[in-house]
Amino acid sequence: MAPQFVFPANLQALEQECEDGRLYAQNVVDVASLRSAELEEFVKGVSFDLSDKELFCVEEQDVFDSVYSLVRAFPGLSPSFKFSILECLRSNLSVLLPSVDSLSRQDDDEAVLGNRTSSYRNAFKIYTFFLISIVLAEEVGISSSNNSKVTATTRKKKHVNSWNWESLRGRVLNLIANSLEINLALLFGSSNPDENYLSFVVKNTFSMFENAALLKDSETKDALCRIIGTSATKYHYIEQSCASVLHLIHKYDFVVIHMADAIAWAEKKYADGSLASSLIREVGRTNPKDYVKDTAGAENVGRFLVELADKMPKLMSTNVGILVPHFGGESYKMRNALIGVLGKLIVKAFKDVEGEVSSKCVRLRAKQAMLEILLERCRDVSAYTRSRVLQVWAELCEVHSVSIGLWNEVAAVAAGRLEDKSAIVRKSALNLLIMMLQHNPFGPQLRIAPFEATLEQYKKKLAEQEENAPIKSEEDDLPTNSDSCNADGEIDNANADNPSQDLDSLPDSYLSQEAVTHKENTLPDVGNLEQTKALVASLEAGLRFSKCVTSTMPTLVQLMASSSATDVENTILLLMRCRQFQIDGSEDCLRKMLPLVFSQDKSIYEAVENAFVTIYIRKSPAETAKNLLNLAIDSNIGDLAALEFIVGALVSKGDISNSTISALWDFFCFNVSGTTAEQSRGALSVLCMAAKSSPSILSSHVQDIIDIGFGRWAKVEPLLSRTACVALERLSEEDRKKLLLTNGRRVFGLLESLVTGFWLSENAWYAAADKAIPAIYILHPTPETIAVDLVKKSLSSVCDFTGGDELQHDIENGSMNNLGTVEVAKLSRFLFVVSHVAMNHLVYIESCIRKIRKQRAKTQREEADNQKANSLDAPKENGINAELGLAASEDALLDSLAERAEAEIVSGSSPEKNLIGSCGSFLSKLCRNFTLMQKHPELQASAMLALCRFMIIDARFCDANLQLLFTVVENAPSEVVRSNCTIALGDLAVRFPNLLEPWTENMYARLRDSSVSVRKNAVLVLSHLILNDMMKVKGYINEMAIRLEDGDERISNLAKLFFNELSKKGSNPIYNLLPDILGRLSGQNLERESFCNIMQFLIGSIKKDKQMEALVEKLCHRFGGVTDVRQWEFIAYCLSQLTFTEKGMKKLIELFKTYEHVLCEDCVMDHFKSILSKGKKFAKPELKACLEEFEEKLNKIHMEKKEQEVTARNAQAHQQKIDSLKISASTRDLNEESVEADLSEDGEVINSTTEETTPSASGSPSFKTEPEEYSHASSELVESESDDMEVESVKSRRGASNYRAKNASARGRITSSRKNRRSS
């Protein structure tokens, strides 16, 4: 009998002889030294032996030595030799496996059977060992060759894998897996194989799992999974397998899914989940703190648990209680995993309805407990966990695993999480609401009014059914076999968990408005009383859900202004879904997304554009046109600008088709029946927007624009004429020329009558004139000629009354003698016209200059091209021109002409003032007449607007009236005037920055205005100036910071937007401004909460670690410069809001001396404790120990300072007590001296307030006064002495003129008393 084969530690260990007589390699052939012919002969010999001899010939020493020699040198063999050896070993083992069963059927005696069994066992182990050794060797060779390919460039291809090793590897490993599934008890004599054999197979299998490339082959992966599952489950190799599985999971993330597959396969194959249960118990027994440090391991283990729950829900549901303690751990990744596990279990573990009622109740209670845990985890401290919970709820909604009874609770949680401080949580909440709307069980329409009406109808019907229903007996209330337990363990109808199941046969119309309006008396019959109750409950739940989603609309509007792009994108998606289900308010909210088209974030713009196209454009041409014109009608100025931008973009891309443009023209021309003048104006507005990108759109309907825009319909719709003026401005250059040739006189006549006429209402006239004057300047070749007529006619309309010549003379001379008889409305119109003409003339001059420059540049290019082509001397001539600076001089001359032309508008250089210049002087004096202005606020608004326009045009006029402007902007009673002036200040700061620079503080002062409108405009103006680098951030930026806590939400949001944008500029100016803002805010009378909110927001905008570390130093040094406890607290609060790094914590510790003296205050100490608690969360062990030591030091100093403070307070109180005693003693001496002084030498005390005199006998011991009826005042000075002598002052009596007494005895008593006191 051959020696027994024992699995060695490695392949080379077979060459070592052991004392136990085991089989080992005795005569090893050095295959590498053989010539090719010898090697070929050797391989053929080994193959022949393995093929022709018996299966267990491999245990023969010579065959064993030969096979070992080839396996040892296997990586260096040629592919053909490799294939030959491998195939022989594999085929022999494959034949050996079925023959093992024959051992049980043989009738030989025990000795023969034992020898045969031993030979089979030896052969089985040898074949297994050599095959696994070949697989390991080949994989090592492949990985090393791959590494060499990465590190070195190879020109020739290596044929390592040319013999199709992947397919052979899978076949070999599958054979090993099959060998484990046969009855190995026949070979090993017991149900469990040899420990040495199992250890070798399992150990090497787990080592193969570490190779990610190997697991990509499905056949190989399946074989390895079978080996693991069979070894652990069939042969109870669980303890070692668990340790190896957990090690791999912790170390390699790619094995997670494959390990879960292996465990699930074993449970399914052998109906034994012991391996899975052991793994779950091991994870449950692990200390939760271990996962805090091993974050990668925690994530992998979490994924593994989720995979197990997905593949083995029943088993996981019975063991999930072991994992619940990890919910209290600090690792959020483990909590995330457990939440995912619960989600999988809720979906898959409770599906079957078989079993007894009691078991169903248990399962439902377990499910309810899991749902409650999910709801509770929505308030987890970690944002990642809160986000994961919401994602799980979305998954549950998608697969309809959330009952109607729980639906609204989940919706309320999602609505609340919309205001979460973390962006990822808000994103998950938005996605959850989208999923809940998409899969809601209540119907396709969720408007509140139809729900309420329908619910009321069915409640009435339910009341009628309850009245007519027979009284149930107690027996009817007992549960039957068809009933089941609800989530609370109560017996309920089987369909009660999902009332919608009872409604499957109902028409959907019961949820629609038609069910209320058309079927009030004929509601659909839903069946018996229980079904009606279920329907009413469902309607009530649907109504609550609709109200819950509707209540989120204000929050969604805020989220659209979020700085996070994901917030904006998902909010738009949710609003689109809300609109689809007709949620109240969703349409209005969607319109508020239009300004987001100006976002610099490309993803936000694309989201808005896609939503706009989906909602308004992807319709029929007529419907699209109607949507667009309705948008134009209902939009405000800001929305119109956004609509113009997006319409222009869509026209350029071709998303707005020609048929839609034609439909818009049909609405404008009243070709569609029922079109109103307002709709016509809206259609023309949209066409003007489209013409900005494609001016040819207006070419075919110029005549219609003139006829309708300035015809009778303009009187019906006042803004139609304004829109027509805009359309004329948008005409192409070619269309303008055609218009001048054909209808020029008529068009300018219409525009002039529009400006000078009175057929429009007051507000409509200002809007129309605002566009008519620019249209004249754009269309007319010499607009100054027609502008003169406009100003004169407007002036004549003002002077069209008695005294008109005098007023005209006043205007020309700048006086105001005859102003009292002027109509305010006409004068306001005149001021608007003259100022608007002046402003447009300035724009016209600038446009002329641009045209000249453009034409000259074109001419120079043409001349340069011609000279370059025709003359060789051109470069020399151009060089001479450049040296002489001819081009620069031409530019300077052009600039000089432009300045002169601009100066001529208001000031004028000639002795005679022009008309506009005369109006400027008159306007300045008019605005200074504050009495008149207060009497006519409308006139003041027009006058100040005109004055601001004149100031924008001319620098000298601006300088002369700046004081007036700031006086008005501060003191004007009308907030409209103050708002207009505030806006004008922004334009003046752009136009004349040097003139406005000394008034910077006054501009910031507008942020403190009592009017919301003025403050809002001030924020907008200053934001524009600062963010566009037209105004430096001065030391008054704290005024803008205070607006973060403005009572008006819009102003607060604008201030937040300003600081967000400011933080993106350069290296974040807020970092440099923060200390100054802190100092200024600390000195103002701000509430503590407001201060904290402001500083928290500003500090939150600083992201760089270096800046945070520098702020630590700056803030610490500020403690020494202030003595106010309130400021100490504010500085400490700002320190606590910083994001500390390790370096920042060390710097805080180093600067201890700078804030040591402030630690006596409890409020300051609380902030430092907060800093330390934050630092401990991220600190490494070394730093953590340092922080704990520092915390002890702070506490010690704090207690010492508190004791010193108490001691100082007690000392101060004691000193005050001593001082008071000294004061009382000195007061007593003074009183005695005053008494002595009052006693004159003649022995008389005179008191003018006494009423009568009472004599006293000489030598009496005291003075005694007789009480009178009217006496009301008395005073005594009593001092006890050693001889009990007393001095009493006389009691005063009313009505006495004087008081005299013989005082010899009294004087004697006083003298003796003083002597006694001195001696004592």
Task: Give a short overview.
Belongs to the CND1 (condensin subunit 1) family. The protein has a two-stranded antiparallel ribbon.
Descriptive tags:
extended; two-stranded antiparallel sheet; mainly alpha; 68% helix
Per DSSP, the total helix count is 60
Largest sheet, strands/sense/barrel? 2 strands, antiparallel
Name the average pLDDT.
Answer: 80
Overall helicity = 55-70%
Strands ordered across the widest β-sheet: 1-2
Distance between the termini: 133 Å
Low-confidence stretches: 149-162, 472-521, 1239-1320
Q: Report Rg.
A: 49 Å
Count the strands?
A: 2
Query: Which structural category do the helix and sheet elements fall into?
Result: mainly alpha
Beta strand %: under 5%
What characteristic shape results from the CA principal axes?
extended
Family: Belongs to the CND1 (condensin subunit 1) family.
Subcellular location: Chromosome; Nucleus
InterPro entries: ARM-like, ARM-type_fold, CND1/NCAPD3, Cnd1_C, Condensin_cplx_su1, Condensin_cplx_su1_N
Protein name: Condensin-1 complex subunit CAP-D2
